[in-house]
Design a protein that fits this description.
By secondary structure, the chain is an alpha/beta fold. Helix content is 28%, strand content 26%. It starts with a strand and ends with a helix.
């Protein structure tokens, strides 16, 4: 499916009209407080917004919020867990592909409070994709990771979007990483989203 934003409006940001093609990854960067996270939350229908969002011809406004969020999945920068272990956040009996992100299955059963931030971040990505959403919205998905784990996450997301033809919106600050993972690059500056090469946007 393709993701289309048509005159999408949130406070503090000019309206956004944008299409992300099936299997395409775009990056968004900008200063803290510029509206990156608020834009992702609006796309996930977690915050009020103007305009319309479409998955192909399916309009967000005509879809229940839970149904929309099953298809348009957001990985927030600040991850919330509501049960004691990661295993409890996955469907009972389902296989969790921990090896894909260099994690041990035993981590699923350990109290989340005993896991590192990087381990929890990778498990949250696996939790996000367990029901095969159509779109991934990733807010700094490798912020807590070492370089090796970062590369595994990049590869995992690439494989996912290629397998499911999933549009991906990736927020980050590392220009080198964004040049690897995304085909098009956007920056939010002075309340406007514009397309720019990633290196030129680093100076904003």
């Amino acid at each position: 499916m393709q993701l289309r934003l048509v005159d999408l409006g949130i406070d503090g940001l000019a309206t956004v009209t944008l299409t992300v093609l099936p299997g395409e990854c775009i990056s968004i960067k900008g200063a803290s407080g510029s509206g990156k996270t608020r834009l992702l939350r609006a796309i996930a229908d977690l915050d009020p917004h103007g305009g319309e969002i479409y998955l192909d011809d399916m309009a967000c406004s005509a879809t229940s919020a839970p149904a929309w969020r099953r298809q348009v999945a957001l990985l927030p920068a600040e991850i919330v867990w509501w049960k004691k272990t990661a295993r409890e956040h996955f469907d009972g009996g389902s296989e969790v592909p921990t090896a894909a992100l260099h994690l041990d299955d035993a981590l699923l059963q350990r109290p989340l409070s005993e896991l590192s931030t990087g381990q929890r971040q990778r498990l949250a990505l696996l939790r996000l994709v367990q029901h095969s959403p159509e779109v991934l919205l990733l807010d700094e998905p490798t912020a807590a990771l070492d370089p090796a784990s970062e590369q595994r996450v990049e590869a995992f997301v690439e494989q996912y979007r290629n397998r499911y033809s999933a549009p991906v919106v990736w927020i980050g600050h590392d220009v080198e990483q964004l040049s690897r993972v995304a085909a098009r690059h956007f920056v939010i500056h002075d309340g406007e989203l514009s397309q720019k090469p990633p290196r030129s946007s680093a100076s904003q």
